[in-house]
UniProtKB/TrEMBL annotation:
PANTHER family linked to this entry: DC1 DOMAIN-CONTAINING PROTEIN, PHORBOL-ESTER/DAG-TYPE DOMAIN-CONTAINING PROTEIN
Pfam (any one): C1_2
Superkingdom, natural source: Eukaryota
Keywords, alphabetical: Repeat
Protein name, entry field: DC1 domain-containing protein
DC1 domain location: 6-51, 61-109, 118-170
Length: 247
């Protein structure tokens, strides 16, 4: 079965990964070792099933002011972005708000809202913002013992004030996928929800809200396209043999 994805110029084929095979996902930059993937064998371009089916725009609880647009590559001249969730750099798919310069890795945008971890007896909840009283305080991650910066997202225990964990440490045993921000349990044994449920990041939204979000997304996408055009033009100018640096 062929599938056309906006990020790639060739059609992709659905392929079942066999035991022992490993592919590199061009969307989230992690390994594909199981389940189905979308593949372009000609270009060695591969996508997890959930990366290939991620929505073009979402309304994310961490940034309710504007929709986040799914981009196949960063719009910045550096060719990379810094994820507002985990603080790590990325050079492939991202959810972006051009107005506010918010960028999220694909997998960070769909982190499960709640997890259980073997290092702690209580449920851990995803926190996008640090409480005001702790806004300037870094914490040590209780899993890896490295610093968890206050500006990064983390998983915290609501019962234990001092238990904070990096997002990647808390979810290292969680099956990758697209998770909803709802009230259902999302422990280590939870699988990803269906991509068709993720239009507005929350289920049960009204049609009117979907239309409104679509209009906002079009405006946001136009801004991003302008940024990409400007970045391409700047790159051409800098690469021109007639360009000389100011003295």
């Amino acid at each position: 079965m062929e599938y056309k994805h906006f990020s790639h110029h060739h059609n992709l084929n659905l392929y079942q990964v066999h035991q022992g095979q490993t592919f590199h996902c061009s969307g989230c930059e992690t390994s594909c070792t199981s389940d189905s993937i979308y593949a372009c064998w000609q270009c060695n371009f591969f996508l997890h099933d959930h990366c290939g089916n991620a929505n073009r725009f979402i309304k994310h609880p961490s940034h309710p002011s504007h929709p986040l647009i799914l981009l196949p590559s960063p719009t910045y001249c550096s060719g990379t972005f810094l994820c507002n969730a985990c603080g790590a750099a990325g050079k492939s798919f991202s959810y972006c708000c051009a107005t506010c310069e918010v960028d999220l890795h694909l997998h960070c945008a769909f982190l499960p809202p709640k997890v259980n971890h073997k290092s702690h007896p209580h449920e851990l909840r995803l926190v996008h913002t640090i409480p005001e009283k702790e806004a300037f305080c870094d914490h040590d991650c209780k899993v890896c013992n490295n610093v968890l910066q206050s500006k990064q997202w983390g998983y915290c225990c609501v019962k234990c004030d001092d238990f904070h964990v990096h997002t990647f440490c808390a979810t290292n045993e969680v099956k990758p996928g697209l998770y909803l921000d709802d009230d259902d349990d999302a422990g280590l044994d939870s699988g990803p929800v269906e991509a068709t449920q993720l239009g507005l990041f929350q289920s049960g939204c009204e049609d009117q809200l979907e239309v409104q979000l679509s209009e906002e997304a079009v405006v946001e996408l136009f801004k991003i396209q302008l940024q990409m055009q400007m970045a391409e033009q700047l790159a051409e100018i800098l690469a021109s043999p007639n360009h000389s640096s100011p003295a």
